[in-house]
Give the backbone structure.
Amino acid sequence: MAYDTDNIFAKILRGEIPSEKLYEDEDTYVFMDIMPRADGHCLVIPKTPCRNMLDATPAQLSACLNTVQKMGHAVMKAFDAEGVTVQQFNEAAGGQEVFHLHYHVLPRHEGVGLRPPGTMADFDVLKAQADKIRAALA
């Protein structure tokens, strides 16, 4: 299937839709998930088009995973987390909803489950969480 240049993440990359940016390098962009399943839930995406890991280049995958690791350390530090969950979905049958490669990075605490999907975050809370992650990256 062809890459849809009008997907929401492509629009975020072009600056057409706002996002709470956490980190950016030459190849990747990281921002807060607006429907977080845990405090500090963020998304790592490549800056170049690909639908998911099935059509990504080795360079796109490598760049994303390097950033995923960096963000895993940052969210654990920012939220005093004991672990991190990384999720990545491919194609509709695999649970993918936005067809631009992305990794979910979620700080985790022992005995605390993930919130159910689909609830919009309070943007003041999201911004405060983003500030904590940016401070942990500094």
Observations:
- The beta strands are 21-24, 28-32, 42-46, 83-87, 103-108.
